[in-house]
Every structure is written in C-alpha cells, then in structure tokens.
Amino acid sequence: MLAIHGGTPVRAGRAWPAWPQYDERTEAELLAALRSQRWSVSWYSPRGGKSRERLFGEAFARYTGAAHGVSVDHGSGALVIALEALGIGPGDEVIVPAMTWVAPASAVLRVGAIPILVDVDPETGCLTAEHIRTALSARTKAVIAVHLACTTVRLDEIRTVTGASGLALIEDCSQAHGSRWAGRTVGTFGEIGVFSLGAAKTLAGGEAGAAVTDSRELYERMLMLRADSRGYTRHEPAAGEYELVETGAVMGANYCMSELTAAVLLDQLQRLDDQHARRETRAKELEAGLAGIPGLAPVPVPAPVDRRAVYEYGIRFRPGTFGAAPIEQVAAALTAELGTRVYPPRDPLHRSALLRPHTKPRFAQNWSRAAERATGRRYPGADHYRAHTLLVHHSVLLGERTDIEDLLTALDKVRAHAADLLAEGTLA
Ligand SMILES: Cc1ncc(COP(=O)(O)O)c(C=O)c1O
C-alpha cells in the first residue's frame, strides 16, 4: 500500500542531507566579520582593507571567469541593476520565459519596462531562440535567459538571435551557479550574468545575490546602481576610512550585501565545486536507475554542457505513467514514501499567483500593455513542463548511493500503484 494511504513508506527514520551546510570554519568567518565591527560596506573600515562584500564580488567573478563581480542584496536586486546598467527603462520590452521564479518579470516592471512572457521548451522548461523570435518587436531591448533547475538554455541559439537582433542578453544563473557550456561558465555569455544566493540555492548566503560582467563600464554602473550612486575608492581604505565614494554619475538605490552575509558566502564558495561533484555522482546513478523505469527520464541537458549544476533535479514522466493522477497527487505520494519533498515546478508566470502587477499602481499600466502584447499568446510548453516534471532539491543529491536507491524504489512503487491515486478532477 502507498504510504500516503497508510502503507509502510519506502524510507522512514533516516534523515536526508541538511541544507544549508556549515561548520566551524563558517562560524569563524562569521564571528570575524562580527568582531571587525565593519558590518556594512557603507560603514568605515576600523582596521583598513577591503570590505568582505568587495572580496566576495572579486572571488565570485574569478569563480565564473568574468572580469568583474558585484555583490548585492538579492538575485532580484541583481536583475534590477543589470537592467538599469543596460539603460533599459520606460517603453522598452524585455523577453522573459514563462517558466521561472517571478523575479525576472517583476524586475522588468521595477525599471519601468514591459515584460513579454514567452513559452518554453516542454522538456527543459527553458526558453529557446524560436520562442524569442515570436516575441520580437521594435521595442525589444533585452532577453533574460533563465537556466532552469538542472539544465541550461541553448546558449549557442540564444546568442545567435540576440546578436542578430541587437538585443542585450542577461543570463539569470540563479539556478545554475558554476554550470559550464563548452568549457565556459554560464553568466559570461551575455552582457551580464545574475545570480540569486538565497538560502535554498547551491551557493547560499541567506538573502543575497551577485552580478558578473566582462565590461568595465557596466561594472562601474552596477556598483553605483547598487550603492546609492557610490563606487569604491581607487585605493584600499586605510584604517578609519570609508570605502565608498560619492560619484553621483548614475542615480542608484541601496541593494548592498551585508558584511555578515559576505563572510558566509566567502566560506560557502569554497565548498561549491566539491558539492557539485558529489551531486553529479548521485545524478548519474539516478539517471542509470531511471532508464529502467518505464515512462521516466531525466530533464535533458544540451550536449555542449560539460558541467551541469543541479539546483533542483528534474524527472520527466510521459503522460499516463502515473495513470490519470495529477502531478500534485504523484508528488504527494512520493513525498510520503521518502520523507523529503518531491514537488512539481511552480505555476508558469502566465498563471502565477506571484505575478499580479495590476495590484500595484506603479506597475498597472505597463502590465496592461504587456497583456495587450500577449493577446492570443499560448504557453503549451510551459504547461506541459509544469504538469510532467517532478523536482527534488539539490541537497537530496548530497548524500549516499542508498538515497538514490530509495528515490528510485519510491518512483517505481508509486508508478506501480498509480491506480490507487486520485484521478484528475476528483480532488476535493
Ligand atoms: C531564476 C531566478 N531568478 C531570480 C531569483 C530571485 O532571487 P532572490 O530570491 O535572491 O531575489 C530566483 C530565486 O529563486 C530565481 O530562481
């Protein structure tokens, strides 16, 4: 019997790997930041030297292979300063995939531009060059390409279309830190790469973000945009000096990262590649096992990806694999078997409860323009992906081979008992 109906679960009493992970080194870094009394980049430097948020920006740029990195408060803030640095504002349109967290769309609204939602590939949930082409207009200025869950957009195709149309490309790598396409790290293919470093992400700082770029000009603009029109002093601050200088060249706002957060991130960054390697080992085992279960397959990864970064591991199922049960039922049954969350992707943005711009006066007008532009637009790829992809958090892949065996056993059990699940339309 399925655990959801009172049967014995596949796994009981054995914990899954905890997330986020930290140890004495993290504690020491955090305590050192606390004791430094330099809790903010805006505050003076009692002992001199660079702020931790500046050091993290530099370290993260090195990690991605970009020339420059800017630490910010959130991935959402990184998106806003990226758009502003590129000069995007009122009247401009920015193409955003329908299958993503709400921030790429809301960031476009926050800079006064119009988000144009486009459909995505049904198997990867990522936008494609073809989808971009269907949405181009004389007002299109940029594309926000989101590398989703455990795969990446086809950067070759996307760059061809953005290049040919003279559009700026912002890569949203919030779910793909360190993923590589043909030897090069994602985030460096467009003008700017943005990253969320929230608590759930593979590089976790609690509430944090970063932006990377190869352009000195965009870097300097983003510095000012994120720190109320202030950039760094040319020299390292001496004891008692401030590190930010008022340039006023570009009007900014405050999206600064706290020094305490930067201390945690400087520690976490050193763990990221080992964690990626561990997840990849588990992902390969999972893929080998999925090949033996009818109807199931991993979310595909484009061939040029030579290192994938798993944020949420995606398992696709052919329609009918779980009978007539909706994905919510399948996910609930698997969660009950495993004691860790298995879940469907969030609703795509065209029907997301998180995207309600008409409820905010400052967004309402642009949103009605976006709605006009979207008339007749359909999102079958996003809807298919939403209804036929099961996700697990990346921490599930940080454990042992036996964890993967449990996952596979649960998938096969729920599939074999699919007739016991409630069919679509019979849910209360
Ligand atoms: C693709 C994507 N973009 C942007 C964000 C926003 O990041 P934050 O929550 O740090 O603002 C997220 C967060 O989940 C995300 O997944």
Tell me the radius of gyration.
22 Å
Strand count, sense and barrel status of the largest sheet are: 7 strands, mixed
CATH T-level fold name of the domain at 24-270: Aspartate Aminotransferase, domain 2
**Name of the CATH first level of the domain at 24-270:** Alpha Beta
What is the level-2 CATH architecture name of the domain at 24-270?
Answer: 3-Layer(aba) Sandwich
Q: Helicity, in percent?
A: 25-40%
Q: What's the number of extended β-strand segments?
A: 16
| Envelope shape | globular
Give me the secondary-structure category.
alpha/beta
Quote the average pLDDT.
Answer: 96
Low-confidence stretches: none
One letter per element, helices H and strands E, the order comes to HHEHEHEHEHEEEEEHEEHEEEHEHHEH
Relative strand content = 15-25%
In this entry the ligands are: pyridoxal-5'-phosphate
Distance between the termini: 22 Å
Total of helices: 12
Strand order in the largest sheet:
1-9-8-5-4-2-3
What is the assigned CATH homologous superfamily of the domain at 24-270?
Answer: Type I PLP-dependent aspartate aminotransferase-like (Major domain)
What secondary-structure arrangement, pairings included, does this model have?
Layout (H helix, E strand, L loop, with lengths): L23 H13 L15 H13 L3 E5 L2 H11 L7 E5 L5 H8 L3 E5 L10 H7 L4 E7 L8 H11 L2 E5 L7 E2 L2 E2 L6 E5 L12 E5 L2 H11 L3 E3 L11 E3 L12 H32 L5 E3 L6 E3 L4 E6 L9 H12 L3 E2 L17 H13 L6 H8 L1 E5 L7 H16 L12
Parallel strand pairs: 2-3, 2-4, 4-5, 5-8
Antiparallel strand pairs: 1-9, 6-7, 6-13, 8-9, 10-11, 12-14, 14-16, 15-16
Helix pairs in contact: 1-8, 2-8, 3-4, 3-7, 8-12, 9-12
Bound molecules: pyridoxal-5'-phosphate.
